[in-house]
Specification:
Layout lengths: L8 H14 L8 E5 L6 H11 L3 E4 L6 H11 L8 H15 L3 E4 L8 H14 L3 E5 L3 H5 L3 H4 L2 E6 L5 H11 L5 E2 L1 H11 L3 H17 L4 E2 L1 H4 L12
Parallel strand pairs: 1-4, 1-5, 2-3, 3-4, 6-7
Helix pairs in contact: 1-2, 3-4, 4-5, 8-9
Length: 237
């Protein structure tokens, strides 16, 4: 398998949102929300993109407080956290503004449990107007709408959806070794078996590639695969 990002629809939509966010007109708010069920590729996509823009990445945790999350952001910036939250906030704002580094917060659902954390993230954006991107599960869009001051600062919304057959074909074309081809019927079987979850599709493609190598096949068909599950591997008879 090749270590690349396949340009499926979710990835393309995120790239367009990022481009719009970073080139937005004066007065357009600069926050984004990327949301969808687990396994649809949100973290993989945003990790790839934040590396392209020298972003700051943190993942919120179930027991986070304003102090703990701002301390981790300071650590991501390569500095020692301050004793006071206000000092951490000032330092983050300074660094985001000076170097135009956008902030990415994964597992942002946990922010919804603490109004003070939400207000602090809003302060970071208001103090810099540098993009802030939240990544969360499928219910976060509904939950965030209850926080109007935060909600009104989000201009880009990207919902990650299940992969369709075209997406699975793109993933196979980009991820598998060039010598290996997969019959469309098998790819559609993979899509249906995984409910379009990107993570499980990637695992399935890994197994298909392993089967091809083990049996020296250039083309893998649905008959070759048989009825084996995609989390296992059975060699051809």
């Amino acid at each position: 398998m090749k270590p690349v990002i396949a340009p499926v629809k979710n990835v393309s939509a995120t790239q367009i949102a990022f481009s719009t966010l970073f080139q937005r007109a004066l007065g357009v708010p600069g926050m984004a929300l990327i949301h969808g069920p687990s396994g649809f590729g949100k973290t993989t996509t945003t990790t790839y993109l934040y590396n392209q823009v020298n972003g700051i990445y943190v993942s919120a945790r179930a027991h986070d407080t304003t102090s703990s999350i701002t301390s981790r952001i300071v650590e991501e910036l390569g500095a020692q956290p301050k004793y006071r939250i206000s000092k951490n906030v000032d330092y983050i704002i300074e660094q985001m503004s000076m170097y135009e580094r956008p902030l990415f917060i994964d597992e942002a659902d946990y922010l919804m449990n603490d109004t003070r954390m939400l207000d602090t993230i809003r302060d970071l954006y208001d103090g810099t107007e540098t993009p802030v991107i939240l990544i969360g599960m499928d219910q976060i869009a509904r939950r965030i709408s209850a926080h109007k001051q935060f909600y009104n600062r989000i201009s880009e919304w990207v919902e990650f959806k299940p992969a369709d057959l075209e997406d699975v074909q793109i993933m196979a074309d980009y991820l598998l070794e060039d010598s290996i081809k997969v019959e469309p019927e098998l790819l559609d079987h993979l899509r249906q078996s995984t409910n379009g979850e990107m993570r499980r599709i990637t695992i399935g493609l890994t197994k298909i590639e392993a089967l091809a190598f083990a049996n020296e096949l250039d083309l893998i068909t649905l008959d070759d695969w048989g009825d084996q599950p995609f989390h296992g591997l059975r060699s051809l008879a």
